[in-house]
Amino acid sequence: MIDSADQLVAAIRARKGRVTPQRRVILRHVQRLHGHFTAERLLAEVEPDLPGVSLPTVYATLDLFEDVGLVRRVVGLGGAEVYDSRPEPHHHLVCRSCGAVADLNAAGVDTEGVLGSAARTGFHPEEATLVVLGTCAVCARSQD
Amino acid sequence: MIDSADQLVAAIRARKGRVTPQRRVILRHVQRLHGHFTAERLLAEVEPDLPGVSLPTVYATLDLFEDVGLVRRVVGLGGAEVYDSRPEPHHHLVCRSCGAVADLNAAGVDTEGVLGSAARTGFHPEEATLVVLGTCAVCARSQD
DNA sequence: CTTTTTGCAAATGATTTGCATTAAC
DNA sequence: GTTAATGCAAATCATTTGCAAAAAG
Q1: Which of A26, A113, B27, B110 is the most buried (most CB within 10 A)?
Q2: Strand C nucleotides within 7 Å of a protein CB
Q3: DSSP secondary-structure letter at B51?
């Protein structure tokens, strides 16, 4: 897993890419956010350090980071794409009302078993994640 | 659960809605499809029986059917919204390449336990579904 | 110098909204 | 007759694409 600028540089060089200031700064902020975010949110975060960055650059960079295993796209419910800077598969709580995504640390899923059943249907499974739909504490309070 | 036109009529009347030919025909096709579909696909399906139906009507009707528990929106990965005419929560295989959604009948998930953990975080869980990401048989064959 | 990456503007695709008309009740 | 639902056109939102200019190697 990539967790330093040096490792990012190595990964980029390995794929004959170029190490740009944008990529360095976006890396820093992705790591600092350490959670779930949309491209739009990341742009806002990065903007002060990189005046004039564009959304297409943020998207392109997130694609690169995804290829390299630095972030993963989270399975969500419509709306904007949510990225996660925790690259191991894990479970999520998704709020139906505001779309917020949170991690859930819970046992209770036999991942290997599930992947096995999936494979037996002819599907080529990569990962199994559990999604709990419901209402987050904030939205529940403001009577949803 | 609603599984006949009569029950749909009752549910619509209960909410002071109106029983239109569009709603009847769309119900028939949703039941006939008995699986996963997008609004666009459903429109194509329904069009021959209802010349001139509009996409907004299909969306509005799907919203109604969702409220009434006839269909559910499936947790997916970007792309078009996928609806499911199987209203009980169940697990899904989602193809990263073509977006296809299939059901997975697998044990291995302690739903109650997971909902409990979710509730303990202050979240108000409604349902827990497992999503297996990977490549479907068709896409795998055409070397993804 | 060569090739990738950037930023901009415009395109795309899915879903939603506004509104006048039609049709349920 | 009233009021909700429809169809159309236009709006919106997130993401992607095309392309010329800038910059990395």
Answers
A1: A26
A2: 4-9, 13-18, 23-25
A3: T
Token match 């490792």: residue?
Answer: A7
Beta bridge partners of A73: A83
In contact, B128 and B118? CB cutoff 8 Å: yes
pLDDT digits (tens), chain A, 144 positions? 666 788 999 999 999 999 999 999 999 999 998 889 999 999 999 999 999 999 999 999 999 999 999 999 998 888 899 999 987 888 999 998 888 899 998 888 999 999 999 999 999 999 999 999 999 998 888 765
Q: How far is A54 from chain B (nearest CA, A)?
A: 21
Q: Are B13 and B19 in contact (CB under 8 A)?
A: yes
**Contact B134/A118, CB-based, under 8 Å?**
yes
Query: Nearest CA of chain B to the CA of A122: how many Å?
Result: 5
Between CA A97 and CA B126 the distance in angstroms is: 12
Integer Cα distance of A85 and B49 in angstroms: 48
Rounded Cα–Cα distance for residues A63 and B100 (Å): 21
Q: How far is the CA of B51 from the C1' of D9 (A)?
A: 19
Element (H, E) at A125: strand A124-135
Phi, psi at residue A109, to the nearest 5°?
Answer: -125, 125
Ramachandran sector of residue B109 (left: φ over 0; alpha: ψ -120 to 50; beta: rest): beta
Which candidate, A10, A30, A32, places its Cα nearest to that of A19? A10
Asked whether the whole model's pTM tops 0.85, one would answer yes
